[in-house]
Amino acid sequence: MISDRQDIIQRELEAGTGAAIGIAVDQSGTRTGLRLWFADLDERHGPIAELRPYGIRGYRVALGFGKFAGAIVRQIQAADAEDVGLARALVASISPAVDLQLFGQGRDDWTVDSGAFKITATARGLPDDQDEAVAKVCRDVIVPLMAAMAELIGYDVIEEEEKDGAHAHEGAIRVSTIRRRERNPRNRLLCIRLHGEKCACCGIEPRSAYGEAGSIIEVHHLEALSLLAVPRAYNPAIDLAPLCPNCHRAVHTRRPIPYSISELRALMSPHVDEAAVR
């Protein structure tokens, strides 16, 4: 039963969205389902997703808003163009094989225009193994949907950094656009969905090299937004690249303008198998 897989679902969603997830069993329909929401908003004041089995080897996800989500809807409507672009790209990254309905709107230009906004996604033909099936629908459908909402709401990651021997928290205060972008787990999620986990510079695939310890690919913003002379639209498909930790650190050894990937590749070309990066 789906209720027996709450741990799998919660782990997948929290890793993908960068936010704590609340979860509860829902027996109101003909088949038992789950309700999922951002824990710090509770299910009445924010977006909520319902997950239910559909057919023999499928699941249906319905994402909408709670009865008292007016404040969050207004916050989403005030999201800046960059956050909107990333949210739309996350939803657009869902496989075309998934039947996706966006309140009568398109994958590339949808907007949350009221609290009645709703997304319905139906995934069919999932693996026979139920643990694998529910993990797949989480990674491929629920994570990008809820990550899109998290981006519009403005969730930031809180990280600890050492400064003068003391720990400092960096979360609600945005030090700079580029620093926030590099640390945003939803950026990493989208970058991997679009480009895979092979380093765009040296060609290494950490997960293949290190197994379970290889989830270390990092996201590089190809052009630091803080250095743009003229503001332009943010396009995650061409503005992000996956880099291994070594290459990511290497491109940033030149400041204020980092090395481009082609420049760094030229520096290291005598030591790198060119076929690996193609």
Structure description:
With 278 residues, this protein is an alpha+beta fold. It folds into two domains: 2-153, no CATH class; 175-277, no CATH class. The chain is built from ten helices and ten strands. A six-stranded antiparallel β-sheet has the order 1-2-3-4-6-5, with helices on one face. A two-stranded antiparallel sheet has the order 7-8. A two-stranded antiparallel sheet has the order 9-10. Helix 1 runs parallel beside helix 4 (130-153). It is globular and about 65 Å long. Mean pLDDT is 85; it is low at 158-181. GO terms for molecular function: endonuclease activity. InterPro entries: HNH_nuc. This is HNH endonuclease.
Keywords:
278 residues; alpha+beta; six-stranded antiparallel sheet; two-stranded antiparallel ribbon; 10 helices; globular
Number of domains: 2
Q: Rg from C-alpha positions?
A: 20 Å
Order of the strands making up the biggest sheet? 1-2-3-4-6-5
Task: Count every beta strand, where a strand is a DSSP E run of 2 or more residues.
Answer: 10
Q: Report the span from N to C terminus.
A: 44 Å
Largest sheet: 6 strands, antiparallel
The low-confidence runs, each spanning 5 or more residues with pLDDT under 50, are 158-181
**Helix count, per DSSP?**
10
Task: Give me the secondary-structure category.
Answer: alpha+beta
Mean pLDDT: 85
Relative strand content: 15-25%
Principal-axis shape equals: globular
Proportion of helical residues: 25-40%
In sequence order, what are the helices and strands, one letter per element?
Answer: HEEEEHHEEHEEHHHEHEHH
Keywords: Endonuclease, Hydrolase, Nuclease
Protein name: HNH endonuclease
GO molecular function, one term: endonuclease activity
Organism: Paracoccus suum
